[in-house]
Amino acid sequence: MCESKAYLVKDGVEELIMESVDFLKPQGEEILLRSIFGEQTTIKARLLEMDLTGHRIVLETP
Amino acid sequence: MCESKAYLVKDGVEELIMESVDFLKPQGEEILLRSIFGEQTTIKARLLEMDLTGHRIVLETP
Fold first, then answer.
1. What is the predicted ipTM?
2. According to the model, what pLDDT value does residue B62 have?
3. What is the pLDDT along chain B (62 residues), one digit of tens a residue?
4. Within 13 A of A5's CA, how many CA atoms are on the CB side?
5. 10 Å Cβ neighbour count for A5?
6. Cβ atoms of A21 and A3 closer than 8 Å
7. What CA–CA distance (Å, rounded) separates A45 from B50?
8. Who among B22, B46, B48 is closest to A51 (CB)?
């Protein structure tokens, strides 16, 4: 399985915000995340980096 | 393996720009892509969407 965990960096601390993310789409100032379980959330953040081998998507607050 | 193909949409047409991408990082108006083979490129684009199950990273020109 190729889904990743999504983390949000806030004040220098990484917080896990969603597991098993398989879809991501920036929408204006927000980012839509969707998991393989159909969970969906939109978060005001921008993409910091994505490491598919490490299964990590890292977002940061603007 | 969880790497993805990266495509760039230009004038409505998807062009494959890198295979086996496992790392992506936005850098200002550009996006850094790196493959599992150590190939690396920076492209002036923004992330349109990413589908990990479909192994697709789609970028678009600004």
1. 0.91
2. 80
3. 678 999 999 989 999 999 999 999 999 999 999 999 999 999 999 999 999 999 999 999 98
4. 8
5. 17
6. yes
7. 16
8. B22
Number of CB atoms found within 10 A of residue B4's CB: 26
Please enumerate in sequence order all residues whose Cβ is within 8 A of that of A11, keeping only pairs 6 or more positions apart, or say none. Answer: none
Number of H helices, E strands in chain B: 0, 6
Distance from CA of A55 to the nearest CA of B (A): 8
Question: What is the residue whose two structure tokens read 């965990």?
Answer: A5
Task: List chain B residues with CB under 8 Å of A4.
Answer: 52
Residue type, A52: L
Name the amino acid, one letter, at A14. E
Chain A, chain B: beta-carbon pairs less than 8 Å apart: 56
Q: How many of the other CB atoms lie within 10 Å of CB of A40?
A: 11
Checking if the pLDDT of A23 tops 80, the result is: yes
Determine the pLDDT at residue B2.
78
